[in-house]
Amino acid sequence: MTGISRRAALRALSFGVTSTLALTAGMALAEGDTVKIGYAVARTGPSATGAGITTIPNYELWVDSVNKAGGLTLPDGSKKMIEVVEYDNRSANQDLVRAIERLASQDKVDLILPPWGTGANLAIAPLMAKFGYPQLAVTAVTDKAPEFAARWDRSFWMLGGGHDYAKGLVDVLAAARDAGTINGKVAVVSVADGFGIDLINGARPAFEEAGFELVYDKTYPLGTSDFAALMSEAQGSGADSFVAFSYPPGSFGMTKTAQSMGYNPKVFYISVGGAFPIYPGVADGKAEGVMAIGGVNADSPAIQDYFARHTEFTGKAPDSWASAITYASLEMLEQAVERVGLDHAALAAELSGGTFETVIGEVKLEDNQLRDLWWVGQWQGGAFRAVNPGDKDGASAPVIPKPEW
Amino acid sequence: MIRILLPLIGLALLTVLPNYISDYGLGLLIGAATYVTLASAWALFSGQTHYISLATVAFYGTGAYTVAVLNEALPYPAVLACAALIGGAMALVVGLSTLRLQGVYFVIFSFGLAELTRQLITWYEVNVTGTLGRYIFLDITTRQIYWQMLALGAATLALTAWINRSRLGLALRVIGDDETVAAHSGINLARTKLIAFVLSAMILTLAGAITSPRYVYVEPAIVFNPTVSFLTVIMALLGGANRLWGPALGAVPLFLAFEYLSSNFPDTYPIFLGLLFIGVVFLVPNGLLAKLETLTARKAPQTKEART
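YS: structure for the whole thing
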């Protein structure tokens, strides 16, 4: 009787096991005296870089610090350890949406932390509203934040919109022009992607209003790796200021290109990536004077302590834009839980109306948005310091012109 | 009779299933139904003709984009109709110019089509409309999405069953076996291939349109995700691309396996994925259904012997 060969049987068996495991995978672990916190972040795919720099290390650092201190404090003074449920969203919204449904209806987690990226945060917003979870969307830059906060009243938008960053930059440049340090001409390049388009759309009218002349204004496709033509045209345009609304690969590529062709504009501004801890290395140690999006109050002891703890825990420094804000959003959550417990409605109300002590200082949201942000930063003396808004406590004065490469 | 009755009973059960499961269960059902539809629609053209197409996501993404552009201007059924028409028109234009390509040339072209569509939309949005990223705010519940997808999947299977019995199906099979012979037997190659390609593309586009309200935010980089094309192909191949139920049979277990792997081994999941692909190609090159048939065929003569 050799009806079914051993090989075939083995094959069938492994197949059956896989399917069964898949079906039973969702079974919850034993209910303990813990607070379950779930998140579905990009471990693989295009969003994995951003999530790996800004989001995941901060989640892990925060959970580690809270648990080392005995857990989350509840209003009655008792403490509960945090138990993490984590899924990979594979950078795909269909997987992300399913993972959130899983966290909410299968794992029944107490809190859900948001994924990385504007699109991802928007994709889960209706679900979070449906299940009633508060959503602290940090890594989402969108000009429609007020609209979204009104549509989903338990969503919080903490990184501003493209117009804010564009306007901050124009302010810095206008001050330098009025002081006679730079001329009134600007060369702008922007990446043809949601983020770059948002910023350039905000920047064009803002530059015009401030009396600047956009002598060069080009977009380039996402994934461009050769910037020589773009940069030499910008160099020949006669502008003192070079502005790039770019993503990390572009920001790095343009820095290297500018260095190798000896392009020394008085203002060199790049966007995402400029505030990364690896940037000085990319710039061959000559990052001094480079401006970029974001910034932190580098003199604040809370920030210095946060940088030190982050470096110790993950082995690398955080980026100087969204990392600190991500961590601050977790501290807000921690303090809100301590004040009102885990009830979602009460938590959302507390997050919306309360005042919190965080690494970025005292935080109070306005209409569910964090507006007290840094728009422009600059590398000065080895640290990425915030320079705009200039009247905000902790702002450094911008150094213009930038020293030559 | 039973061959029609059983699927109908199954369909009825699947229709009422959302009443008894959690939201996550429903999410799984939508995912499974989507991939069954995609794999079956893909096999409708590629399974019979052996033209391996990696253009699935070009149509799927176009469907999502159509909804994003039109959802505020037109009523929902009209949006779906537009999506199907746009997908069909796109397939017609593309098919007319490229179905002459064969083998690896067609594979490469179809892969490029997704990228081409993505770049064209990006270029248009950047230079003409000046926005990138659109929002879909439609009042459609998760259940309604599931039922629509289920209906589309059932329609795809019914269409495939009908085509398999028709002259068109016969012509497609002949083309798949040998194109020269097909031409000499008087089959109009271009027309036959084009009909199947357009039908398949319309279903793929509709599938993209139906799922899109779940994601709210649409951006070319998000909706033209090439993984969708690869998964569709490997699912159809696992089950058996030239059979009616093959793609469905491959899609469900693979979809569940991916879900299990990505939630339990988030760091190492791509390695499992790669191994699974290799496994499918080496162990079941003709699909599970064909494998099952060889197994039962091997068994049958023995029982006969035992009786004598």
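YS: worth flagging: The first strand of chain B starts at residue 134 and ends at 135.
IM: good catch. Also Confidence is low (pLDDT under 50) at residues 303-308 of chain B.
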